[in-house]
Each structure stands twice: as C-alpha cells, then as structure tokens.
Target: Catabolic 3-dehydroquinase
Amino acid sequence: MTRRILLINGPNLNLLGKREPHIYGSTTLVDIEAQAHAQAASLGISLETFQSNHEGAIVDRIQEAAGWAPLKSSNAPSADSDGGQGNIHKLSRVSAIIINPGALTHMSVAVRDALLGVAIPFVELHVSNVYAREPWRKHSYFSDRAVAVICGMGAYGYSAAIEFAAKHMRVQEGDE
Model:
C-alpha cells in the first residue's frame, strides 16, 4: 500500500510570504508545498496538498481523506452510491493528515469533529508560536487529539511534520 499524507492549510495561509512577514516569514505557500512534495518523494510517500479559506471545504476534504466523500446530489442514486445509506462513495484513504488550521484552530468544532470522525492520525501545525501571541490563540480545538503539535518553527515546521508523519506511519504499519 502506498503511504499517503494529506497536507491541509486553512484560512489565510494562501497569503504566507505576503501577510505579516514579521510573524509568518517570507516563504510562500507555493514554496512550502514544492519543498514538501520533494521531501515526501524522497521518503517514498505520496503527498497531497489542499488549502481553503472555507471551513466546509476543509471538512469535505478531511472526509475524502478517509476514503469517503459526499455525493453532489442526494436525490439521484448513482453507480458510486452506497444505496442511499448515507449518500457517500468510496475513494482512496490517506495514512496521515498534517493540518495547519489557521484561525480555525481556535473556533472550529466542525473541523475537529471531521478529524475525529475519520480516525486518521493527524499532526497539528502552526508557523508561528501561538503560545507567545494573543491569549485567545493558546486554545486549540485539535491539540488534545493530535498525534503531535508543531508550532513556532516557521516554514521548517512543515518539514518536521512530514518527517514525523512518515516515521509515525512506518511504526503504525509495522515497517519498523
């Protein structure tokens, strides 16, 4: 089975390199994703990337990562349908999720529920040190269930997260 990691970036992370570079650095999301793809390939892992400013799109992508996706229309059965038992069809499953939820960290029960519902190990990632910033940034809806939390390492945090997820997947799958 090919090991696959899904890297999700939440709201405003498409502005990395432009938005508050004194906090988030000058590396763009395009640069981060290019480096992440190269690193994953060197580790023999397939990497998928996804960024959205919309909570529901992130929830949909997390559900897809589990191998299930909502049908576009629940009124018309299709060949991919499960016979009306939830209106979902089967997709490929990922081995791990790395998520930088951005501002959704502090407010999204929906994304938390999606992550818990799919039961895929996930790493919570933040470019800045959220514990050295505003008090409200110290609360995360994800950290208590994450396999690991990486913050304050800048763009390098993505490399650390991929390395950790790759190692964690090998251990979980019995390769080591």
Observations:
- The CA atoms of residues 170 and 176 lie 6 Å apart.
